[in-house]
Amino acid sequence: MRPTAIMLAGFIVLLSLAATAQENRSEISVQGTGFFTQDTSGQGISRTTTETGGFLVGYRYQFSRWLSGEANYGYDRDTQRYFSTGGFSRVQSDVHAATADVVVALPFAIARLNPYVLGGGGSLVFHPTGNPGGFVSGADTEAEGTFLYGAGVNYTLTKHLSLRAEYRGYVYKDADFGIRALNTDSWTHTAQPSAGIVFRF
Questions:
Q1: Which of 1, 83, 97, 147 is exposed most, by the fewest CB atoms within 10 A?
Q2: Which helix H or strand E contains 19, and what residues bound it?
Q3: What CATH number has the domain bearing residue 64?
């Protein structure tokens, strides 16, 4: 009786896994991005940032027809330029974005287009590259908490493959790399449009 019960339990588990797999609740996405940061000023310092591009990879799990959760990692490299009466400074940095958010599917779809909105938070980590012409002595890696919002649309190609166009906005405190002379004490916004491919399984 015991081996039979074990076999039956194993069979039920396999059926459950198969049913879950057929539901295709998981997604992995790979996207190319733009990275456009708003200029700021404060405390006698003005800060501008070069416009750049990067990539974004993510995992999304669908809890229901309308609600999903996701985690993402993004990478970009830009240069922050600081102007003040004391002079001009440049810090080139790798920007690592680690975020988590809730995704809500909108209650309408047009043909194969499936729109959604998202909101969440995470961290942007600014890591100076140390490259000549883009480094200030004493500049250190800095992490800034960020609020995240956005919207996007998936275009279904097959059951397991979609195209994605998306916009993400990050709101966070200006990075100063631990140097008081670079501290604007201001909040800024980065726009991140992106497009890529989604694998559903």
A1: 1
A2: helix 2-23
A3: 2.40.160.20
pTM here is 0.86
Closest CA to 88 of 132, 47, 138: 47
CA distance linking residue 166 with residue 158, whole number of Å: 19
In terms of C-beta density within 10 A (0-12 exposed, 13-18 middle, 19 or more buried), how is residue 18 classed? exposed
Token couple for 45: 């310092």
In this predicted model, what pLDDT tens digit does every residue of 25-75 receive, in sequence order? 999 999 999 999 999 999 999 999 999 999 999 999 999 999 999 999 999
Nearest-10 Cα torsion for 13, 198, 148, 94: 110
Cα gap 100→115, rounded to integer Å:
19
* Position 120 in a domain: yes
Name which of 189, 170, 175 is nearest 45 in CA terms: 175
C-alpha span between 33 and 119 (Å, rounded): 18
64 exposure class (CB count in 10 Å sphere: 0-12, 13-18, 19+):
exposed
Give the residue carrying structure tokens 């999304």: 60
Q: Which structural domain, as residue segments, surrounds residue 124?
A: 25-200
